[in-house]
Amino acid sequence: MAKHLTDTTTLHNGVAMPWLGLGVWRVAEGQEVEHSVRTALEVGYRSIDTAAVYGNEEGVGRAIRDSGVPREQLFVTTKVWNADQGYDSTLAAYDESLRKLGLDYVDLYLIHWPVKGKYKETWRALEKLYADKRVRAIGVSNFHVHHLEDLLQTAGVKPMVNQVEYHPRLAQRPLLAFCKEHGIQMEAWSPLMQGKELLEHELFVELAAKYGKTPAQVILRWDLQNGVVTIPKSVTPSRIRENADVFDFELSAEDVARIDGLNLDRRVGPDPDNFDF
């Protein structure tokens, strides 16, 4: 069980990935994202998750360079956007992301959404980048079980990560079981359900008081105890610190089960079977 902010899980290819990172979705390019990433790195985060479509890769790269943290200590994730999917276009998109980040490689490159008729060719490009040692790990995002099953029929390399919407209202148990069975590390985006309803839910208020933590910290701890890598997004320094302070307590099995009981299979983001972008 993770005991420290720098603790890692080992992906199926042997690469170490931190259990907790900073997400920068909807964080504005420029000062906002630079400040957010710089704060996280000062606090001790070593994993930063961005994407081409977020439009803030340049700011992320600047903050990384300004931080003084050695590159090999960091775990940087970015993603190929839907409009760039396909073999040649994905290779070009990767080069563009590297240019914007100002990096020689990223640690994890993901297919952002399972674009029908395209994600297999996109995956072939990721396998090429991986074979050429231009990226340390490759994976997918927002893939349901059936997308993974389809991809695994032709993939030469199994995805190392599947990053999906995951929180107590969307516990994704069949998907989590499938990923564990196949050695694919599941990762949570919107772990706090974008702040809606969960943080004021009576169960989290109760558990926060019991453990001397905040409702958000209880939720993030639940993720980690379920074996899910987590990347809460924040631009507030105090919240970035708070989100990282989840390694000095452990939820009881009974309390984990009570949180599990909140699942409603309810999304705040798009359904990977019905998205139009």
TrEMBL record:
In terms of SUPFAM superfamilies, this protein maps to: NAD(P)-linked oxidoreductase (SSF51430)
Q: Which GO terms describe its molecular function?
A: oxidoreductase activity, acting on the CH-OH group of donors, NAD or NADP as acceptor
Where is each NADP-dependent oxidoreductase domain found? 20-263
Keyword presence, rRNA processing: no
Annotated substrate binding lies at H112
Q: Which UniProt keywords apply?
A: NADP, Oxidoreductase
Annotated active site residues, numbered on this chain, are: Y54
Do you know which InterPro entries this protein is assigned to? AKR, AKR5G, Aldo/ket_reductase_CS, NAD(P)_OxRdtase_dom_sf, NADP_OxRdtase_dom
Question: Transmembrane: is it a keyword of this entry?
Answer: no
- According to UniProt, residues marked as the site described as Lowers pKa of active site Tyr are K79
Q: Mention any Pfam family matching this sequence.
A: Aldo_ket_red
Superkingdom in the source lineage? Bacteria
Its family remark reads:
Belongs to the aldo/keto reductase family.
Protein name, please? Aldo/keto reductase
Origin species, per record, is Paenibacillus flagellatus
